[in-house]
Amino acid sequence: MAKGNKELSREQQEELLETLKTRFEKNMNRHEGLEWTSVQARLENNTEKLLSLNEMEATGGEPDIVGLDPETGEYIFYDCSVESPKGRRSVCYDRDALEARKKHKPENSVMDMAAAMGIELLTEEQYRELQKLGNFDLKTSSWVQTPENIRKLGGALFCDRRYDTVFVYHNGADSYYGARGFRGSLRV
């Protein structure tokens, strides 16, 4: 999962930018009032963020802009795939949880994968914001950032959408399921 290539080839950059542009134009309700030319200029000048977006795309996240931070001027990308990204499922919450498993350890953890990709795990609040833009995780679920007091007790939080409602649940941080992954955010 670590970004082995420290940069994308020009062809890879162009392909990624075209994919992001197409998604941007198809889903204008997620970012009303923003123009792609400004986004593209920012992305072209930030190859590290392009690498992160490429990882988000390669693991099935379908990143798209969901806002603009008025204080910093940063574009905010979230994973907008309908279901939890396929390339980021069957992982426990963090390294401590992974190491605590005695049997059937997953290959990785959410927090390690997110760090390697250069993205942040969505918070519960961000997850709820995402759900205002569409119906996500109707069949899957996504880990979200867990408060330290819950994590210290061995738990972790995840969310999904059922019955037209966003639910927040808990599990042992060392648990993992084929239908649970994670969604990330990236500021550019």
Automatic annotation (TrEMBL):
It comes from the Bacteria. It holds the Pfam family DUF4256. This is DUF4256 domain-containing protein. It comes from Mesobacillus boroniphilus JCM 21738.
